[in-house]
Amino acid sequence: MTRGLRLFYVCFILFLLALPIIVVTGISLNEGRSLRFPPEGLSLRWYGALFQEGDWLEPLRHSLIIASCAAALSVAIALPLALYVWSRGNWLGRALHTLGVAPFMLPPVITALGFLVFWVSAGMYGQMLATIISHAIFLVTLPVVTISLGLRSIDMALVEAARTMGASRGQILSGVILPLITPYIISGFAFAFVLSLNEYIVAYMVAGFTVETLPIKIFNSLRYGYTPIMGVVAVLFVALAIIVFGLIGRYGNLPRLMGSDRSGEC
Asked: What is the DSSP string of 148-188?
């Protein structure tokens, strides 16, 4: 394959990947109240309408609260789990690691159905707390993987040197281990946050119409009326994901965080 043909092939694939984003962006710029592409007239009125209409502000607030709390809770669950697996390495640690990555091994609808049955039995169906906990458990795999990668990249000579100097386990954890894996913790939080914002199946099964998030609002709007605000929300989701992953790529080691670069491991 010649260089020119290879470049054309790469550009064509990138165009196909970007095409849905281009279409949705065009839809969000429609001047009228219609989902048309190419847009009929160009206007940013719907971007302002998103933050002015109460029907959309409430789902936006729900989505931000759920995503922030669920990402923080998933990191709080993943950190001690990953530390135990890394420090012990016994059968119990391997079993806990498998349990930590299990939510992503099952189809989302199966996981969502399990959450639905559990929260109905517990009498908490339709509550925001149930959605937060469900998202945290469903997305805990992401911080488990990133934190585990960070722990495996630690030079054990640093830990041994701290132990030789008389540092306690708590001092080693707070002074050596946590500073080294902080980028991995932040990355795990960011991954969980972005996916929680976009998650629909678990949120719908656990809360239904009681706690309406932006993805649920979009699907409801598709049934009851089309407005370009749906395109605006999609564009903002994509922009947020680009910003978050761009910052991780700029200030972190994205290939290593994704598990493809092991040059820094012992």
From this structure: HHHHHTS-HHHHHHHHHTT--HHHHIIIIIHHHHHHHHHHH
